[in-house]
């Protein structure tokens, strides 16, 4: 088996990907189920240089943009068909391709702040 | 946290650029990509800046892999499900190497790295670069620019990344492969039905040995291997001894100075006696150093290397009294004008006292594993207590990236000193 790692870009041309990292899990409403494609998660806002808020539903997270100590390469596994020797059947061959590089992440490590709070209900005292 | 809004159905591109260059007081919607969850074939590999040029270039790298799955160990089954190794191409710069029973390693042209998968419990959203969408959906507009709707799409959620940890090359296997079929002077490959059994070409070794090409070349040199008919071989002891003897004998016969042997003269005489030129040249290189001058190649035989070879021959029959050994060794060396010294045998012999007599026996560092744990285990099995002067030659060649000799001793030995003025003793931890 031969696995090729292909890079079609040069060092300066490798396209940069972004990372949003949340301490926790984003859950969709039960009604949506597994059909997440195209669903809006929330809104990312740049408050000031390097500082962000991420609003998910009525939760607001605060985060910062951090350069990675070591860059991350994004590799994709590809499966292609390659013809083998003459008269032999086509064999499945895996490939790895460098499709991007990640140099920064936006990390939201604080607990979410609730944007909507339930109003306090005062108990009526019996006369 | 719950997601409530449903964004427009059309694919709105990636938008990593929009996220990374988002201006102050601007905002951008983050959506799940139209292909979210459909592609599990992405890997994040943490790479040191100095290694980037090896990865990011306009060419292919070829990886020969097929490794067993283990928790928290990078496994090439994640890449493919076909259990066959491949041969490396000439254009390979970075490769992942290993057999089904081995942990995967990543090799650059000069170094070897273990691969470790580091999982995360965080939600790591990966946003690819993408073209700005042509959608006019108001929800999708970056604040302050209604004509240029921008969206960042989360392509997948990463479960972790692969870390590279520099390790020593795994070269013990190389010794074993080359010892399968050492070259003998009288061997004749023609008509041998097992012609290529136990023989390994450069491509075979690259595929089988978990080491970078530079480390592999260095290891072949240190094992005194040579390429014969496209296969890397080591000479069996008798063939090396016979060739060296013939060189030394002819040096005496023809009054050749051992410090400036003319390679052409040596080759012509020994080839006439039936010794292959490549073997003679290799023997000269193994036991000395060559310099290239206008008249040809000059070889200076190294006294230590030659005396060591002669000592190994004397000790090949087993343990002997030190004085008997010295007598035989000096006699052998004297015929070729060499002056033997016990210091030449560091890391090759062990001494022991039996009653009042000193005995000597062969115990070569080259027979020991390159793995520190196995090396120390073998040393303490041989002798439970070691003095530093005896131990040092046997651990001098152990290299663990990021660990000094002192660190190795702390990790694998226990240090004791019976008295303040006594020698430090090392025993098994």
TrEMBL record, chain A:
Pfam families recorded: Ctf8
Domain of life of the organism encoding this protein: Eukaryota
GO biological process: mitotic sister chromatid cohesion
InterPro entries (UniProt xref): Ctf8 (IPR018607)
GO CC terms of this entry: Ctf18 RFC-like complex
UniProt-recorded name of the protein: Chromosome transmission fidelity protein 8
Automatic annotation (TrEMBL), chain B:
KW Protein biosynthesis (keyword) present: no
Gene Ontology cellular component list: chromatin; chromosome, centromeric region; Ctf18 RFC-like complex
Entries under InterPro entries matching the protein: Dcc1
Annotated signal peptide: none
Biological processes annotated in GO: DNA replication; maintenance of mitotic sister chromatid cohesion
The keyword Transmembrane is annotated on this UniProt entry: no
Family to which the UniProt record says this protein belongs: Belongs to the DCC1 family.
This protein's name: Sister chromatid cohesion protein DCC1
